[in-house]
UniProtKB/TrEMBL annotation:
Belongs to the glycosyl hydrolase 31 family. The keyword Hydrolase applies. Residues 550-641 form the Glycosyl hydrolase family 31 C-terminal domain. Keywords: Glycosidase, Hydrolase. This is alpha-glucosidase. The keyword Hydrolase applies. Residues 235-541 form the Glycoside hydrolase family 31 TIM barrel domain. One of its GO terms (biological process) is N-glycan processing. Its EC number is 3.2.1.20. Coiled coil: none annotated.
């Protein structure tokens, strides 16, 4: 049985022909302080229209100065302040790429204003300023016991993200975010691009200073909420973006590409997006025109009938994007050259190129409304903007990437009838880029070092509000071929914001699952299927990210800001509110036949979704060991995760016919499943104060004390649309099994099955809407996770390990021979066994010390073995080596 079947109860499913494409209400690029503003697609605003409210509340402004030296402070909240200095007396009230909404309610504050000294005081900070040009000696802000002094730089020592991972072998430098271990973070906005009232780009006057101090003193979530209030929320993504994307830099023909899509269908691997890299257009062009990197004319040798090809992809329920390197503009060999030239009054007699000019509104209008609109009518759904030419344009301060991202996103509103919501696919351009998802992180090299950095890179991006990275899963180029590396990267991709398989041109490098050996191939397929099964969970998290300021992926310290250990596991993260993911980013050790990762668990009790036999007591570090078909995903007591358990998964992301509720008992739990409204109403506008009411909602409750599970009733924003539609429901109690007697009573009248480490209850079809009451089932009072049988787990790990049989006896006796000493003595003996690999000792220690409830547990007495043979105890507060090596004999 596959490890994934423990979760879903379903094997790999074949694809079938799904329903018609889903439609839903679109959203505008910007947001108000509380929501994304709706777009009426019948009277679509142009690309220069987006919500904003950039002028601050006059009651929150303090200004002053004399000739050549002027200042302005805006107290946005009692913890967020804008500071400005100007030599000319002018200040900036236009929208910047970062700040769209500065009109906050004025907080309580007081001032002390003297001849050469200004103080601004709130309950959270104390600002002092000497009324001169900003300097470290004359401008400071005290927050708690910490003090910031002006230096002209942005600061946030917890990191943000980076423009690209192009060429990265491993770690890259990160730009700062707005979170810090200091009491403050600083975002300098002095050089950002602006937008005028008519929505066109503008630049700043040189010499002015414009910045923001986030004085949140470790309250990370509050800082991010105000970041989004100021800069705009993340928009809701179309549902299909959360499925599997296929991408490869390869000269596909139309026939080859369609054949590949059908191969995925035959292999039972669903897809939702088809990416065609740059060879869709003419690449081999006469040298007089330059390189073939930029192009907008279909390569008819490969794609003789583009409309037919795109229709074939759409018929397979796939959204389509193509690569665009726009830097070389539109040249004379292009099919659209004369048409674009006519729109721009460009002389074509000498075949002079129409140069890319992001600073020309006239050029951009022709670029979108002449050049690209025809390709979109053929069937291109959205654009992969692959800008790699730096930050400069003919107007200083205007970054072409910003211009491309902003106007592509706004222009994509015209395609919402096919793509459901606005979207673009491009690199990160700086603070504020979260408004233009989805991010393309660039061409990483294929290495363990590259994989090791990506979890941290993805998590810290949330520190600058950037929640929707799409990485080249499996790596793009270079490096070496490794089954293990590919599997581990795909597993990370499943528990990442966006999963897009990708690779470069190479005879040897492609990510089709069936190109790998049998065992890793099966694992890759199973995890890609799991990604689609997770979409009910992911889509709800998508809405949560947009309207509750909670990105899908969050560093551990977001939820544990005052716990030191949360800052020491940068590769570990929350995936939604209750799932902790600790990706495997190293090869197996050849002894235990597992890979390991050092993990910190917060206080509470957790169960491993992929090995539900194991319950862990938290509030400590622990080393987790997993075979190739498992990734550490730990769910806390009181967790609900809905999965699409429809027997046959299809391309696209249709509404599930069957849902399995993964339930981790032990605490009360709630999950509000959010989905698109029914098909006839998805394109209808609704004037709700709370935009979340525009979605169909199904509340799921677990009441721990009585053991009552409640599902529904489903509600939609359209009260006139209700029917007795049915949906099949199952419940899987992860990490809970029962005695035979209890099993018979557990859900009388329902099919109850014990799956390895869990119990599944088939509730059958349930009415999705009942105006009177939810569907309820009583499973038993105060159900608790199973107490770990650590001896069985230790035996299995010792048995599986490769090594000397005599060593196996020695290790087993330490765990099982209760007559040979106390637990503490036997733990010490295991630690000091000579000639035994550290990895095997640690693997056994993991299960021996996992559950404090188990009789004879080593919990609180565990010793982890590191490379030096020194002791690294698992209790918090004890000395630990930062890195453990599983390869060393001690």
């Amino acid at each position: 049985m596959s490890a994934l079947s423990f979760i879903t109860g379903a094997g790999r499913s074949k694809s079938s022909s799904p329903a018609a494409p889903m439609l839903s209400r679109s959203t505008a690029a910007g947001t108000s302080s509380s929501s994304v503003s709706p777009v009426n697609t019948d009277t679509m605003p142009d690309r220069y229209s987006f919500p904003s409210n950039p002028s601050a509340n006059p009651k929150a402004i303090i200004t002053g100065g004399t000739k050549g030296n002027h200042y302005r402070f805006t107290i946005l909240t009692d913890r967020l302040i804008r500071y400005e200095w100007s030599p000319d007396g002018g200040f900036e009230d236009r929208v910047s790429t970062f700040a769209l909404f500065r009109n906050f309610a004025a907080p309580a504050f007081r001032t002390v204003d003297k001849d050469n000294r200004l103080e601004i005081i709130t309950d959270q900070f104390h600002l002092e300023y000497d009324k001169k040009k900003f300097s470290s000696s004359g401008f400071s802000v005290k927050v708690g016991n910490d003090e910031w002094r002006y230096d002209g730089n942005s600061y946030g020592d917890l990191g943000g993200t980076a423009r690209t991972l192009d060429g990265a072998w491993g770690r890259v430098d990160l730009e700062p975010g707005v979170l810090s271990r200091r009491a403050y973070a600083v975002l300098d906005d002095s050089k950002s691009m602006l937008f005028d009232a008519d929505g066109w780009i503008a630049t700043r006057k040189p010499g002015r200073v414009d910045g923001y101090i986030f004085a949140y003193n470790g309250d990370h979530k509050a800082a991010i909420k105000d970041f989004y209030r100021l800069s705009g929320n993340q928009p809701v993504l179309p549902r299909w973006t959360l499925g599997n994307w296929w991408s490869r830099y390869h000269e596909y023909s139309a026939e080859e590409y369609i054949g590949l899509m059908d191969d995925f269908h035959k292999e039972g691997v669903p897809l939702s997006a088809a990416v065609i890299d740059m060879d869709w257009h003419k690449v081999h062009i006469p040298s007089k025109y330059g390189s073939g990197w930029t192009g907008y004319s279909w390569n008819r040798d490969l794609f003789p009938q583009p409309e037919k090809f795109l229709k074939q992809l759409h018929d397979r329920k796939l959204k389509v994007t193509v690569n665009d390197h726009p830097a070389d503009g539109i040249r004379a060999f292009e099919d659209q050259y004369k048409e674009v030239a006519k729109a721009l009054n460009h002389d074509t007699s000498h075949e002079e190129p129409i140069r890319f000019d992001c600073c020309s509104r006239k050029f951009l209008d022709a670029y979108f409304d002449v050049l690209k609109v025809g390709l979109e009518k053929q069937g291109i759904d959205f654009w992969w903007i692959d800008w790699q030419q730096g930050t400069r344009s003919r107007i200083p301060g205007v970054d072409p990437l910003w211009v491309l991202n902003h106007y592509h996103y706004l222009t994509s509103r015209r395609n919402v009838k096919t793509i459901e919501r606005p979207i673009t696919f491009s690199r990160y351009a700086g603070a504020g880029s979260h408004r233009y998802p989805i991010g393309f992180s660039g061409d990483t090299q294929i290495s363990w070092a590259g994989l090791e950095f990506q979890p941290e890179f993805t998590a810290t991006a949330s520190n600058i509000g950037y929640g929707w990275w799409s990485h080249d899963i499996g790596g793009h180029w270079g490096g070496w071929r490794s089954n293990q590396l590919t599997v581990r990267w795909v597993q990370l991709g499943v528990f990442s914001p966006i999963l897009r398989l990708h690779s470069t041109k190479s005879l040897w490098n492609s990510k089709e699952p069936w190109n790998f050996e049998s065992y890793p191939s099966r694992i890759i397929k199973d995890f890609l299927v799991l990604r689609h099964r997770l979409i009910p969970y992911l889509y709800t998290m998508n809405i949560r990210a947009a309207y509750e300021s909670e990105p899908l992926v969050q560093p551990m310290y977001w939820n544990h800001p005052h716990t030191e250990e949360a800052y020491r596991v940068p590769n570990q993260y929350y995936f939604g509110p209750n799932l902790i993911v600790a990706p495997i980013t190293s090869p197996d050790d050849g002894i235990t036949l597992t890979s390991s990762v050092k993990t910190w668990l917060p206080e509470g009790r957790f169960v491993s979704l992929f090995s539900p036999h194991i319950a862990y007591t938290g509030n400590r570090h622990i080393q987790l060991h997993r075979p190739l078909d498992q990734i550490p995903v730990l769910a806390k007591e009181g967790t609900i995760v809905p999965l699409d358990s429809t027997s046959t998964l299809s391309n696209g992301t249709p509404t599930p016919e069957e849902i399995t509720v993964l339930l981790v008992v032990g605490k009360d739990a709630r999950f509000d499943l959010l989905e698109e409204p029914p098909v006839p109403f998805r394109h209808h506008e609704n004037p709700h104060d709370d935009p979340r009411k525009d979605f169909t909602s199904t509340p799921i409750f677990w009441h721990q004390k009585p053991g009552l599970l409640s599902i529904g009733p489903e509600t939609t924003p359209y009260s006139r649309y209700h029917s007795n539609r049915l949906r099949h429901w199952k419940v899987k109690l992860i990490g809970y099994t029962a005695t035979k007697a209890h099993l018979e009573q557990l859900a009388s009248g329902y099919k109850v099955t014990e799956v390895d480490g869990s119990i599944e209850i088939d509730l059958g079809p349930v009415f999705r809407w009942n105006p009177h009451a939810p569907f309820e089932i009583v499973l038993g009072p105060e159900l608790q996770l199973d107490v770990l049988d650590f001896k069985k787990q230790a035996f299995d790990r010792i048995h599986r390990a490769e090594g000397w049989y005599d060593d196996k006896d020695k290790i087993w006796n330490c765990v099982a021979d209760t007559n040979s000493g106390s637990v503490q003595e036997r733990v010490e003996r295991l630690h000091h066994l000579n000639g035994v690999y550290a990895s095997l000792k640690n693997s056994v220690m993991e299960v021996w010390a996992a559950d404090e409830r188990a009789e004879g547990t080593a919990y609180g007495k565990e010793i982890w073995t590191n490379t030096l043979g020194a002791e690294g105890r698992g209790e918090l507060g004890k000395t630990e080596e930062e890195d453990w090596d599983d390869y060393v004999l001690v």
